[in-house]
Every structure is written in C-alpha cells, then in structure tokens.
Write a structure and sequence with these properties.
- The protein is of the alpha/beta class and about 325 residues long.
- It contains eleven helices and ten strands.
- The strands form two sheets. A five-stranded mixed beta sheet has the order 3-2-1-4-5.
- Strand 9, helix 10 and strand 10 form a beta-alpha-beta unit.
- It is globular, with a radius of gyration of 19 Å.
C-alpha cells in the first residue's frame, strides 16, 4: 500500500510518501502548492492508494467564517479535492486529519518514546491553537486544549507586525532583537494582551491595533520585542507544567510553529529528562503526521535533518 501525506494550500507545502509502512521520502516546497517535480518524483514509488490531508478543510472554513474572513471561507478553489483534481489525482480517496493531530502524530510516531507528553503550540489550526496529548503504548489522547482566538502564535505574530516585520515569516527577527531590549519597559503593557494560561482578552488576529505608545526608533522595537519574548516564555512555561501534570511523564515532544522559538527552548527543555522534536516542527512535517495519526505506526528509522531549535535528549 502506498500512502501520501500532503500539506498544501497554506504557508508552504510538503509531501510524505509511505510504502508498506515505511517512509520513503519527505519533500518540502516553499510555495503553497507542491512543485510538479515533487509529484513526479513521488510517483516513482507507485500510484498512491490513499491521500491523507493534514487538516479538516470544512472545519477550517467554519473558523474562517467565525473570524469574519468571509472571502477566504467562501473560496472553494482551495478545497483539497479540487486541488487533487488539478494535479490529476482526483480519483484517489482522501482522509482528513485534525491539524493539531497531524502535528502531534508527526512528533510521537517518529520518536523513540513509548509514554510521553506531546505539546503542540502554533498560531491556529482549524480552531485549536494549543494542545497537550498523553501518548502511550502507540496511542494518542488529547487531554487539554486552547482554541481561537486564544493563541500564543497569533500573539507573537501580531507583535511581529507591530514592530515592522512580516507576520508568519519574520518571528525569528523579533526573537533576535529581543536580546537587545529592556523587557521591563513594556512588560506590563504587553502582559495585558495575554492573561493566565493562554487566555487573551483581545483578539489579535488582525494585529495589535490599540498599542498606546508611539514607536520611535529601533530601541523601542527592541524593548517591545523583549517584553513580548518574556510573556511568551512565561506562557510556554505554564503550558509545559500543565503537560507534566496531566501526563505524569518526564519525556516531552514539542511540535508546532511556536516550537521554533529557540531562545525559549533553551530554558524549558532543561526541565525535561528526555525531549524530541523534528527539524521542521511546523506544518512542513504535518504531511508525515497526517498519515501516522491514522495508521498508528512508529517510524523509528526516520532520517531527519539536524534539529536546531531545541536540544534532543533520548
């Protein structure tokens, strides 16, 4: 049996090819749609028996309607079935996977752990923005979640935009300049945008539209970035502690776009005995998880690139 896991029509795309339970290849594309050469190369392994999609498109469109993104929600050209038709795979049956389940499965089923806490934090999937999974004996159980508009990823991206960078692209720049800032200057102002455990009093999906101070020069941007980074780290610490409490495990798998914040990871990963992630913990690896979530099969011999965003301890 040949299974394809696909992540596409989002920020970048990827294709994972499984044959008889073994991962044959993982191809990443910077464009929203898979490059034709990637599809041609994948077909060398044979025609797929089934495609596993990395999210549930209709649930995502429901959230877009809820968020007031009416034009996006009503755009049916981005439905996976229509996309598969465009790449001449219309007759292949398709199975949809919850977005955060794809993230979590990509981490758990490629890890050497039997029992572990799996934490997924990103901007947004369909509705969920943060989840904790108790993974044990080859099975995954979601034990905690936060949903839109309460999102640490949206929080970080909104402030990335506020200080002049491109959201969903330049978050690493906010992290970089936070080193030169004074977190105390704006900490209590930034803190008002994120209360308790991933609880946001304001929806920042359209950005920080009510910032009360003028931003005059690079140092102001650095100081804002430092405060945002500190609040981000405080929230990650709370989620990680919740994961430890709910799972009783000292092994952690960390996935989702927020897992790329290496500055925070240096502090948090030291608190766990064993840790695991993938080189691309965001949507790029969701094509792997989209398949593994359903087949529930460990891929121990998965050859991944070096993980630079956190220390792997196994």
């Amino acid at each position: 049996m040949i299974f394809w896991g696909i992540n596409a029509l989002n920020h970048g795309s990827s294709l994972a090819v499984f044959k008889d339970g073994e991962l044959q290849s993982l191809s990443l594309c910077s464009e929203d749609e898979l490059d034709s050469s990637v599809i041609t190369e994948a077909l060398y392994h044979g025609y797929p028996n089934r495609v596993f999609w990395y999210e549930k498109p209709l649930l995502k469109k429901l959230r877009q309607l809820y968020a007031g993104q009416y034009l996006t929600a009503l755009d049916m050209s981005v439905l996976p079935k229509r996309y598969l038709n465009r790449i001449k795979l219309s007759k292949i049956p398709i199975t949809y996977t919850p977005h955060h389940a794809s993230h979590a499965a990509a981490g758990y089923y490629t890890s050497p752990f039997d029992h572990c806490a799996t934490v997924v934090i990103d901007a947004i999937g369909e509705f969920q923005s943060a989840t904790i999974w108790n993974c044990s004996r080859g099975k995954m159980k979601k034990v905690w979640s936060r949903s839109y508009p309460n999102s640490l990823g949206i929080f970080y991206s909104a402030f990335t935009q506020l200080i002049g960078f491109t959201p969903i692209k330049d978050e690493y720049l906010l992290q970089e300049i936070s080193d030169q800032g004074n977190a105390n200057k704006y900490y209590f102002v930034v803190k008002k945008y994120m209360n308790d455990l991933l609880s946001m009093p304001k929806n920042l999906h359209k950005g920080v539209v009510d910032w009360p101070f003028a931003i005059n020069g690079l140092q102001d941007k650095r100081d804002i970035a430092a405060a945002v980074q500190l609040v981000f780290e405080e929230q990650i610490a709370l989620v990680m502690e919740k994961a430890r409490q709910l799972t009783g495990s000292d092994s952690l798998i960390y996935m989702g776009g927020c897992a790329m914040n290496s500055k925070c990871n240096i502090k948090e990963m030291s608190k766990w005995k064993y840790t695991w992630s993938l080189a691309n913990p965001g949507d790029s690896s969701s094509s792997i998880g989209a398949v593994l979530y359903h087949v529930k099969q460990k891929v121990f011999d998965f050859k991944q690139n070096p993980v630079n965003h956190m220390e792997i301890k196994i």
